[in-house]
Amino acid sequence: MTVTETARDSVASALEQERVVSHLNPPPSYDLADHPVPTGREEVWRFTPLKRLRGLLDGEPSEASLALEQELPAGVELRTISAAEARELELPPNERPAALAAELADGALLLDVPAEAELDAPVVLRFRGGSVDDLVHARLVLRFGAHSRATVVVSHTGSARYNAITSVLVGDGAEVDVVSLQDWDDDAVHLGRDAVRVGRDAKVKHTSVSFGGDVVRMHANVEYAGPGGEAELLGLYFADAGQHLEHRLFADHNAPRTKSNVVYKGALQGEGARTVWIGNVLIRKVAEGIETYEENRNLVLTDGCQADSVPNLEIETGEIEGAGHASATARFDDEQLFYLRSRGVSDEEARRLVLHGFFQDLIRKVGVPTLEEQLTATVEAELARNVSGGVR
């Protein structure tokens, strides 16, 4: 048994001995009976428009898949593994969409970055759906060896009804950036769960970006395989008329001297635009000396929008370095707009500059220059759509 496996088993044993069930994160299980079809009255489903999921939770099997284009730096391997192999590696599902993906996907994709590897270019996996009539269940495992350095970008475009479970396994001392981009066509439905295990003294940055799709509901869950791990969870989203974009975060501090920092920012415009952000941090009794902070900011651009933002802290020990959260939802800052207008800046340009400033500090943290340029262009295109529509 390797050192990493021993550490993983020790953490699992500790969790079993002291199982604290978060009210927002049910216990993991592969048994679909433990994840019944939701009614909408459950706390974890009450914000989600179930009728718009197009049967995605019914459990219908499907052989459909997304097309894949890949860019793999030297030394990186991408291969298909069996469902049994995936179960040995991945973090078990704790919600029905992920459990369905694990149950119904035909095997899984495994991306392997070797120990000690230092990639000079990002790994890019471009998934594209052909039609919203396609029902796709998918499993993806990203495995990073000890002391490796890597960036992985996973993008989703086109259209589909898509259930996905993704496990990010980060070895001891590794430094990893993972970017998940949801830029679907307007009719797509995407239910995804990215579960991250952070090795001892490892650093992980996970960025979730959602622009397209009819309904997108994303999870980002973090746990620790040993002390000293650090996780930074970033998110950016922009909802237009009728879109529902939902992001749920869970940082499970199950080891001492670990850190988590969450920053999500979103903008909304158009009638019926809806965003949901649910942040949750669980600090277990064993997690002494940890630091955590979660922040969500929403900018409402027009009437007829709704942004829900709910930060949570569940604390089992007082022996911590710090824990806190912040949440705010507001319209354009009238003082900023007035200042710009008074200096001859047009109303349209003033709004563009304010929105650019709202997102830019977060975009700069993505760490992939070409993607940062793409995100900046997309944000401005979204704002232009609002302006051209004459909505104020």
UniProtKB/TrEMBL annotation:
SUPFAM superfamilies: Stabilizer of iron transporter SufD (SSF101960). Residues 133-358 form the SUF system FeS cluster assembly SufBD core domain. GO terms for biological process: iron-sulfur cluster assembly. Residues 1-36 are annotated as: Disordered. It holds the Pfam family SUFBD_core. Belongs to the iron-sulfur cluster assembly SufBD family. This is Fe-S cluster assembly protein SufD. It comes from Nocardioides perillae. The lineage of its organism: Bacteria, Bacillati, Actinomycetota, Actinomycetes, Propionibacteriales.
